[in-house]
Structures are given as structure tokens and as C-alpha cells.
Amino acid sequence: MDKSADTSQTAALAGLRVLELGSLIAGPFATRLLAEFGADVVKIESPARGDDPGGDPLRSWRKLHKGESLWWAAQARNKRCITLNLKHPRGRDIVLQLAAQADVVVENMRPGALEKLGLGWDALRAANPSLVMVRISGFGQTGPMHMQPGFGAIAEAMGGMRFVTGDPDRPPMRANLSLGDSIAALHAVMGALVALRHRDATGGRWNGHSGGVGQVVDVALTESVFNMLESTLMEYSYDGTVRQRTGTSIPGITPSNVYRSKGGEWVQISGNGDAIFRRLMLAIGRPDMADDPELARNPGRMVRADAIDAAIQAWAAQQEPEAIVQAMRVAEVPATRIYSIAEVVADPQFRARGMIEPHTLADGTPIDLPTPAPRLSQTPGATRWLGPALGAHTDAVLAELGLDAAQIAAMRQDGVI
Fold first, then answer.
1. Is residue 94 within 8 Å of 401, Cβ to Cβ?
2. Which of 125, 130, 79 is CA-nearest to residue 103?
3. Mean pLDDT along residues 180-193
4. What is the CATH number of the domain that holds 295?
5. Is there a single domain that holds both residue 222 and residue 108?
6. Is residue 1 situated within a structural domain?
7. What's 408's domain CATH number?
8. Active-site residue among 181, 274, 288, 404?
């Protein structure tokens, strides 16, 4: 892998070499985040063969432009994409050579799949004792379900998130997003960086003779979602409370809800801080509630949550949505309209923060991408290039391993790449 692939002088992860053996969402999103902050990510995809177009299936997901997903432009940005046939011995040998030079390998295949190819943890560790291997799967690498396929939707359901999402008298709801996968990806990045910190503390990067201690980071989608459930486990273990679906409100945090405006549009108002609640009540013309000692603290407001919501709704129903937001801003009460992506793009706050990046696809078509987050003052993330074509960097990466043009051509002829 090319340690100079990132020419930015302010990339926090410049010099970090990552090998991606994954597809679709969780693994590739994790490596995307690493690549945004300067890591040299080499993504391995299957080559096209016959009717099989090869590559990550995400290339053909959601909205397409000339046969390729718009999602791909962001999900694979800053990565170097190569093709390798992992069923071919030469392809597996190349993986081991790349792993020997890598700091991190990220994979999200079904447990056991890499072992069948001879590319499991034992083989990779033998090639590189200081390697950090991030393994993302539905249920983890152990347990009675570890061999079962698992997707983000299953993780959201089994991890407890879906049970508490939606209206109490309707089926559990899901967001029109792959939350389970994205949450797992964030855990994967955290795990990788923690493991790298341990490696560095135990001797630094492997140099062929001695070095830091590598390890496996075992990320389960189900456990990543479960980790987001706040106090639900404690509540259940304490007295058997099972948190239920409550629609748009959050019982125990009052008031925080959506309220319907005069035009029918919904506005989120969160007045659950003690001082904020008082300002909210004064802003809507309810000094009686603002001055009520029983409502001065959240426990008292919990008891009268319905009455508080009714008072806010009665006021909101007489206001246009923008008037509600402006009144709340004057009162310093958190509030917002419920944004679509069109409103996100138009919002001056997102614009002022530079969160919408204009780019162009290979054919010159303009496309916006989200700016890498979080924002770092000294080493910000950056988009150096958009998701590349299948196999765009194969020859360059193989040349870095010492293969010449004739050898690369022979591998292509043999169906290795």
C-alpha cells in the first residue's frame, strides 16, 4: 500500500494503511470514515466475470447515474479500489501480502467465510503480528447465532431499537435509513482506533522483527444497536419495566415532542431543561405554568406531561411553522421544523458550516456530498476523490507489491484480477 497516497499535510490518519474486505454498508462505511481522515484504504472487490458485473453490490443500490449508485460516490470516496478473485490461490496470496503491509483489515463477511479461504485471523496474524483485524457481522464471531446472516434491519429489531420506535397502537417503525449498519460502523471505527492505541503502546507498528500487539475487534450489529438503548436495561433489571413505543414523545423527559402548526406542518420543541421550560411557557403565554412550583423540575413535569403538551399544542395550532421556530429562538428554546433533505441543503446553518460539498462525477455531472464529520480544527477530514471505477487502482497497487506489467497482465488473463 502506498503510504504517500494521501498528500494532505493535515490528515490525522495519514500513513495508516487499511485493507477492506467488505461490501454494502457497515464495513465500507467504517473504512470510508477512516479514509476521510487520511487513511490509505485499499478496497478489494470481485472482478467482473461473464454476466456477473463484479464489485460491491452497493454500486447498483438506490438511485443510479449511468448504471452506478450515487451512494457509491460518497461510500467509496478516497479509497483505492482493486479487483481480486479470492477463490484463486494467487488472489489469496495478494491479500496476505497486502495484509502484511497493513495496519488494519476491515471485513464484514459472514463468520467463517474468510477461514474457508485461508484468510482468517490466524493466517493474517501470521503475516502481520501487529495487525488489527476488525470483524463486523450480524451477531458476532461467537454464540449460537454467529453463523447466521444478519443485516442492519435485523439488528435494529433484535437489538431492541425497533420495539421502542413508533406509535403504541401501530407496528414497530424503522427509519428509511440503514441505522443498524451505520451504528455498527461507528463502533468498528472506535474499536479500530482503540486497538491501534494499544498496539502503539505495546511497541508500535510491526517491522518484521518486533512491534506492538495486534488483536481482533469483534463488532456485532445487534450489540452495536443494543449499546444505544440508554437506560432500558437498567429499568428492566430494577423493577421489570419494559419501555414501550410512545410515538413522538419521550416519557420521562418533559416537554419534548412534535406539535402541529397552523398549516399542518410539524415542529419539534424541546423544552425539557428547567430554565428552558420556564422560558417556553412564558413565550406561549402561560405564565401560570412558568411559575407553578410543581413544574419547576422534570419529575413534576412528568406527572403533568399531557397537560403541558396540550398547552403547547394549543399555542402552536395558531401559529405558522416559521413563526413557531422564530418565537422559540427568541426565547432560547430548542426548536426546529422537521427537515427533508431539501431543507437540510437550504439551511443557512449547514451552509455556514460547509456541510454540503459540491463535486462532479467522472462525466462532469454535478453532485453534492456531505462534508466529513466530525470537524477537527487542525486535521480536518477531506474528500480527495469520489468513489472510483471497478478496479481503478488494481495495477498501481499490484505494482507497489513489486509486480511488473507482464505479471499483472498474466494475472488478468488468468482471472485473478
1. yes
2. 130
3. 98
4. 3.30.1540.10
5. yes
6. no
7. 3.40.50.10540
8. 181
What is the residue type of 338? I
Dihedral pair phi/psi, residue 360, rounded to 5°: -135, 140
End-to-end Cα distance, the chain: 17
Residue 345 domain flag? no
Summarize pLDDT for 261-287 with one digit per residue, the tens: 998 999 999 999 999 999 999 999 999
Q: How sure is the predictor about 10, in pLDDT bands with cuts at 50, 70 and 90? A: confident
pTM of the model: 0.93
Same-domain status, 34 and 120: yes
Using DSSP, state whether 57 is helix, strand or coil: helix
Query: How confident is the model over 19-65, as pLDDT tens digits?
Result: 999 999 999 999 999 999 999 999 999 999 999 999 999 999 999 99
Q: Are residues 180 and 72 in the same domain?
A: yes
Residues in the chain: 417
Question: In terms of domains, do 147 and 183 share one?
Answer: yes
- Alpha carbons 306 and 336: distance in angstroms, whole number: 21
> What local confidence, expressed as pLDDT, does residue 205 receive?
59
Question: Does 179 lie in the same domain as 44?
Answer: yes
Query: Is 40 labeled as catalytic in the residue annotation?
Result: no
CA–CA dist 47, 53 (Å, integer): 8
Report d(CA 64, CA 71) in Å as an integer.
8
Closest CA to 228 of 279, 266, 175, 297: 175
Same structural domain, 332 and 360: no
Nearest CA-CA partner of 270 in 244, 301, 294, 242: 301
Q: Do residues 25 and 58 lie in contact, with contact meaning Cβ atoms separated by under 8 Å?
A: yes
Domain that holds residue 180: 17-228+356-413
The number of folded domains in the chain is 2
Contact (Cβ atoms closer than 8 angstroms) between residue 43 and residue 35: no
